[in-house]
């Protein structure tokens, strides 16, 4: 079950996770505090309530597909060459051109270091040996460069030949052994997507470091999906996505889509994603239970706008030791957004921060549609 903006009730979800109990404690009032972490995804087959009102369900564990890396052998680095002559029949098409467009050019290619007798004199005058290269592979960066020779190369001047040779000497050339060019495979390569998602995530959250998770794209996709400052329906949709690549692609879109956290009722601006601060070892979003048993998934930010405080600060049942909490509501519509936590001890930093309930913020999809209409 998950909360929905603009609704006081909860919606039934079709996908959930098993929970591993990490910590168990008992409060002074007799209630039990349980700290758990999600593990395996499952799909809800059916659910029912017994005579005591307890909800039961039949679930099926979802087997996760392991992330697959694009084989390195699919794109081989070309060896350095002293000269490169083009057939006169047809030009060489760039490897990033659609294979359908290259269908008529399958027989065209490059003859390297094999000049004919009639062309030996002209070729020796136009070829330039790249400096610092030999006939063996050199240690170059792993960036992707594609060599394409224009059809008008035979009419190029000597200066243009020297310029091209100098450029090629500095760039590793990639020979595609696969059907599509390398950039097409990187669009769905989990490890490439993990690096992109991690770079965007670091723009919002500097600590804790997620460098180790970049090597495990499946775990990184679940971590970002759980910690993104988005509404509960969006988070639930991320959980329901099958496939690491598809989940990471959607998270990258969300990280780029909107920089603002808005009220789920009136869409007033509350905070920016750059205002998110980590106040828990689990990340910027934590799940807390109040003394009445209500669960609140809370995003912590160091700055907020458009919120009005209600009542006096109190340390009773505070989720953050050494901080007193005050109820914070939206100044525009009056809906309860979260709390202001202010320190009661001098040595604690930050001196204050805000806790925003993720169930009370606007859906990113609604924000995108509103921006398109404007």
UniProtKB/TrEMBL annotation:
The keyword Signal does not apply. Residues 113-135 have a biased composition (Low complexity). Keywords: Cytoplasm, Metal-binding, Nucleus, Ubl conjugation pathway, Zinc. One of its GO terms (biological process) is protein ubiquitination. Substrate recognition component of a DCX (DDB1-CUL4-X-box) E3 protein ligase complex that mediates the ubiquitination and subsequent proteasomal degradation of target proteins. Has an essential role in mediating growth by negatively regulating insulin signaling. It also has a role in maintaining presynaptic function in the neuromuscular junction synapses of third-instar larvae. PROSITE patterns: CULT (PS51788), LON_N (PS51787). GO terms for cellular component: Cul4A-RING E3 ubiquitin ligase complex; cytoplasm; nucleus. It comes from the Eukaryota. Likely a component of a DCX (DDB1-CUL4-X-box) protein ligase complex. May interact with pic/DDB1. This is Protein cereblon. Residues 90-161 are annotated as: Disordered. Residues 258-365 form the CULT domain.
């Amino acid at each position: 079950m998950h909360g929905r903006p603009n609704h006081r009730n909860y919606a039934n979800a079709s996908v959930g996770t098993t929970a591993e109990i990490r910590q168990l404690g008992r409060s002074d009032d007799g209630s039990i505090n349980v700290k758990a972490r999600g593990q395996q995804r499952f799909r809800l087959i059916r659910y029912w309530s017994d005579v005591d009102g307890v909800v039961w369900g039949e679930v099926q564990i979802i087997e996760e597909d392991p992330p697959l890396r694009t084989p390195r052998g699919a794109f081989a680095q070309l060896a350095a060459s002293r000269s490169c002559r083009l057939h006169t029949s047809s030009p060489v098409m760039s490897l990033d051109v659609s294979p359908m467009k290259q269908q008529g050019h399958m027989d065209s290619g490059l003859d390297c270091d094999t000049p004919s007798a009639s062309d030996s004199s002209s070729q020796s005058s136009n070829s330039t040996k790249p400096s610092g290269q030999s006939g063996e592979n050199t240690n170059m960066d792993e960036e992707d460069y594609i060599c394409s020779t224009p059809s008008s190369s035979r009419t190029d001047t000597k200066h243009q030949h020297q310029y091209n040779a100098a450029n090629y000497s500095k760039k590793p050339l990639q020979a595609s052994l696969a059907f599509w060019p390398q950039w097409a495979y990187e669009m769905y390569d989990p490890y490439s997507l993990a690096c992109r998602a991690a770079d965007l995530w670091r723009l919002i959250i500097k600590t804790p470091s997620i460098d180790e998770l970049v090597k495990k794209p499946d775990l990184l996709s679940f971590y970002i999906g759980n910690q993104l400052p988005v509404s509960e329906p969006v988070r639930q949709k991320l959980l329901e996505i099958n496939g690491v690549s598809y989940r990471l692609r959607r998270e990258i879109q969300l990280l780029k889509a909107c920089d603002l956290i808005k009220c789920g009722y009136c869409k007033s601006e509350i905070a920016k994603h750059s205002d998110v601060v980590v106040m828990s070892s689990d990340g910027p979003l934590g799940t807390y239970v109040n003394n009445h048993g209500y669960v609140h998934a809370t995003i912590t930010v160091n700055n907020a706008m458009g919120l009005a405080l209600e009542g006096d600060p109190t340390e009773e049942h505070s989720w953050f030791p050494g901080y007193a909490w005050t109820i914070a509501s939206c100044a525009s519509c009056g809906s309860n957004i979260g709390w202001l936590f202010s320190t009661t001890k001098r040595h604690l930093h930050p001196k204050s921060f805000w806790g925003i309930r993720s169930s009370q913020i606007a859906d990113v999809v609604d924000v995108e549609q509103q921006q398109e209409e404007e």
